[in-house]
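[step 3/7] inverse_fold.run input=structure_tokens len=181
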């Protein structure tokens, strides 16, 4: 129903920004690139969460402690190895539905992060996790690596997402409305 004094015009409804991002993904991302992006994002997220949890346990501001089995500290690289062993089983089995599935990619990224975070322990075979020597450079390097990997895996996609987002925000500003997703 139109208001008095106005004519009814056909107006095109603009797709929401998330729909535009999805269209960009459909145009730019092959299934392999999608899996790699999920892997890198899972790697970075898991690695960051593990860093936060380990600092919280050590700093005493998280309400739980380290995981132990039979009185022995269980390092999180053990969980990473178990995760990668499970992913390896999926790969060896060759289940077509699982190949490239986002859950498989996410598990692979998470398992790799759990192992990589304690790489110095595996390399030196001693618990050097909290030694200051080189810790900051490792932290920064791994965080940067995960972001860079996710970006370079699908650079044209991320470039288009940035362009679409800039256009969406500018268009919303011209109309005087919120650029909410």
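[step 3/7] decode complete -> sequence:
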């Amino acid at each position: 129903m139109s208001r008095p004094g106005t004519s009814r015009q056909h107006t095109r409804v603009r797709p929401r920004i998330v729909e535009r991002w999805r269209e960009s993904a459909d145009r730019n991302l092959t299934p392999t690139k999608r899996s790699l992006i999920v892997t890198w994002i899972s790697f970075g997220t898991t690695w960051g969460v593990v860093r936060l949890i380990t600092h919280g346990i050590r700093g005493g501001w998280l309400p739980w402690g380290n995981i132990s089995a039979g009185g022995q500290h269980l390092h999180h690289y053990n969980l990473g190895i178990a995760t990668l062993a499970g992913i390896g089983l999926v790969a060896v089995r060759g289940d077509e539905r699982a190949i490239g599935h986002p859950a498989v990619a996410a598990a692979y990224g998470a398992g790799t992060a759990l192992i990589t975070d304690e790489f110095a322990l595996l390399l030196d075979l001693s618990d050097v996790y909290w030694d200051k020597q080189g810790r900051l450079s490792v932290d920064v390097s791994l965080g940067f690596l995960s972001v860079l990997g996710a970006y370079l895996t699908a650079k044209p996609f991320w470039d288009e997402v940035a362009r679409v987002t800039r256009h969406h925000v500018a268009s919303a500003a011209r109309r005087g409305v919120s650029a909410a997703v």
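[step 4/7] annotate
The chain is about 65% helix and 0% strand.
The first helix runs from residue 17 to 28.
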